[in-house]
Specification:
The complex is a heterodimer of chains A (331) and B (294). Chain A has 331 residues and is an alpha/beta fold. Chain A is 34% helix and 25% strand. The longest helix of chain A is centred in the middle third of the chain and has 16 residues. The chains are: A alpha/beta (331), B mainly alpha (294).
Chain lengths: 331, 294
């Protein structure tokens, strides 16, 4: 059977600018496809092509089995779209926004009211339902936007940077909602600049840069592609640092990097079996480490390795390799 | 936030369920009939979508009362200005001018109000709302139809305010209410036609400010270069030719005839012809510009 999202060789030219330079991807039915890339890499353009808002210069795409160019109406009947900026009508209340879309989807007045009410409830907007969307906070707006994209009960949901500019709390809300939607069988294409987000939500990740797909795979595949793992040995104090470093060097073959402030030794290793041996050696030498772990590379490192640059302005708190615990398989 | 169970809004469609929506059973709501699977939007559905979006534009209008100034306060100011400032000079005394100028101001105000369509469209285009509309299974032209029809109530308000305020000052309808309503209808029909022009300007212009400027440039000569405020006899011959050709003149003459008595058939026919002509030319043009822009 055809997958929910299939794109082949999408090219999008705006005058002299080539926004997409042959993007092919597959969003498996019922899974989350994370599209990861820096600003201007072609994420939004891809979403706009898939959501029938743009007609590609070349290539073609099918969503739910329907061609986005020759059969856009059938595609539109099956998708939901949440843009980078919340596309809600600021002069209408939250309830009216959802009611309007329900009506446009062909619901009767009563059905549209019920559907709007249900979604308001689901997205925790009941108190603000009658207020104009203009008065909503960023997080509320995004929730309303997400609710609006669900009015038509879409089979495929496009989320274009759904958490950009949200505070961590609202971001967690969005993440939870996406997880729940996927549990119900919705196919999601999520674009993001945040590796953590892709790692957390996506079943498959396609990495784009300069309008091209530069990598494709599960988060795990991408991480293992980046190669070596990192051994972390943290000691309780500086006393045994030299002995421990010598032990590690002997085992791994290279001297570990030392951080004297935190009593941390790090070393790149390619054989995970090293860990078991190291535990035994430490035991024999009477070294009791405070922390001993083999860390897989974070997606940040993967991304850096693939693109040669990290381009995510405005989010310094996520830059660096110490993003998330889920990246790591602690020993 | 929501619970895991709260999210189950029904089974999503997959490639396999491209059939009729009626097959869906589970879920808290019926499957929207709009996704019943057609390749195109039918005419009736298209009209319905347009009317729903007209409803949206209407509510938006009421929500921001300052957007109604041009159809409420402005006509009152215009009536006061023309009747009392120029009335004596133009017609000898303001009573006589009131009778002459009220149909003219009605026409001018309603037609001016139609220029608003392009501004709304233009500022809407810049927001994400239009992206949402375009991602919905609705007629492509629905947003355009909605913008044009959404201003209908504004035209009614404008006409009622001018004539109503005129009547407070002593303006009287000499024919019958039905004829007066017909005059209003004629003016509103022309306004709807002109709002297609405005929509086109709105699609081509880069900012709402540009739309306003261009609209003003268009409407000023049309409204003042007509018999709305002064009789054409007083003008130089070249200008007179323009005034006689101007559709606004026909509209003003038709309104005068329908409200005060006098020849009606000729100007009314001219008005209808102009209205139809403007729609035939500019509706497709603005639809095309809309499709190209979006």
């Amino acid at each position: 059977m055809a997958e929910a999202i299939e794109a082949e060789g999408l090219v999008m030219r705006f005058g002299a600018v080539i926004a997409l330079d042959g993007v092919s991807l597959v969003g498996r039915t019922g899974a989350v496809l994370g599209m990861l890339g820096p600003n201007g890499s072609g994420k939004t353009t891809t979403v706009r092509v898939l959501a029938t808002l743009l007609r590609p210069t070349a290539g073609h795409a099918r969503v739910c089995g329907f061609d986005t160019v020759s059969d856009p109406h059938r595609v539109r009947a099956r998708i939901g779209l949440t843009g980078q900026y919340a596309s809600v009508d600021e002069d209408l209340s939250g309830l009216e926004n959802l009611y309007l879309i329900g009506r446009l989807f062909g619901l009767s007045r009563r059905q549209a009211r019920t559907r709007a009410g249900d979604l308001i409830e689901m997205f925790n907007l009941a108190e603000a339902a009658a207020r104009r969307a203009r008065t909503y906070s960023g997080g509320m707006r995004r929730r309303l936007d997400l609710a609006a994209s669900l009015v038509g009960n879409p089979a495929v949901l496009f989320l274009d940077e759904p958490t950009t500019g949200l505070d961590p709390h609202s971001r967690n809300d969005v993440w939870r909602m996406v997880t729940e939607l996927v549990a119900d069988g919705t196919t999601v294409l999520l674009t993001t600049q945040y590796l953590e987000e892709a790692d957390r939500l996506a079943d498959d990740i396609v990495v784009v840069d300069h309008g091209r797909v530069i990598a494709y795979g599960t988060p795990d595949e991408l991480k293992s592609r980046a190669g070596a793992q990192t051994l972390h040995v943290r000691l309780t104090g500086p006393e045994q640092l030299d002995v421990a470093a010598a032990t590690v060097a002997e085992l791994v073959g290279t001297r570990p990097a030392r951080d004297l402030d935190t009593n941390l030794l790090t070393s790149r290793v390619s054989d995970p079996a090293v860990l078991a041996v190291l535990v035994r050696r430490f035991d024999e030498a009477g070294i009791v480490p405070a922390e001993l772990a083999l860390l897989r590379p974070s997606l940040d490192e993967v991304f850096l390795g693939l693109t040669g640059h990290l381009d995510r302005p405005g989010q310094p708190e996520l830059v660096g390799s110490d993003v998330t615990d889920t990246d790591r398989s602690a020993a | 936030m929501n619970t895991a169970t709260g999210m189950s809004a029904g089974p999503p469609h997959t490639a396999a369920s491209a059939g009729p929506a009626g097959v869906e059973t589970a879920g808290s709501f019926a499957a929207p009939p709009g996704r019943a699977g057609g390749r195109r939007v039918g005419f009736v559905d298209g009209v319905r979508h347009g009317l729903i979006l007209a409803w949206r534009n209407m509510i938006k209008g009421w929500r921001t009362p300052e957007q109604l100034f041009d159809v409420t306060l402005q006509p009152i100011v215009f009536v006061l200005l023309f009747v009392f400032f120029f009335g004596g000079a133009v017609a000898g005394d303001w009573h006589r001018y009131l009778r002459y100028v009220i149909p003219g101001i009605m026409v001018q105000t309603v037609l001016m109000a139609s220029m608003y369509t392009g501004m709304t469209l233009n500022s809407d285009l810049a927001t994400g709302v239009f992206d949402r509309f375009r991602s919905l299974p609705i007629a492509r032209s629905a947003a355009l139809v909605g913008a044009v029809l959404g201003d209908f109530v504004r035209y009614v308000v404008a006409a009622v305010f001018v004539v109503g305020f005129g009547m407070i000052l002593g303006f009287r309808i000499h024919t019958n209410p039905l004829a007066a309503v017909a005059a209003g209808g004629l003016v509103i029909a022309m306004a709807l036609a002109l709002s297609c022009v405005s929509a086109l300007v709105g699609m081509l212009a880069r900012s709402p400010g540009t739309v306003q400027g261009v609209s003003f440039m268009m409407m000023l000569p049309l409204s003042f270069g007509s018999s709305a405020f002064v009789q054409a006899d007083t003008m130089p011959s070249g200008l007179r030719a323009f005034v006689h050709a101007n559709p606004v003149t026909h509209l003003v003459e038709a309104s005068r005839g329908l409200m005060l008595g006098g020849p009606v058939a000729g100007p009314v026919l001219a008005c209808l012809a102009w209205t139809a002509g403007i729609i035939v030319v500019f509706a497709p043009l603005s639809v095309r510009a809309y499709l190209r822009r979006t």
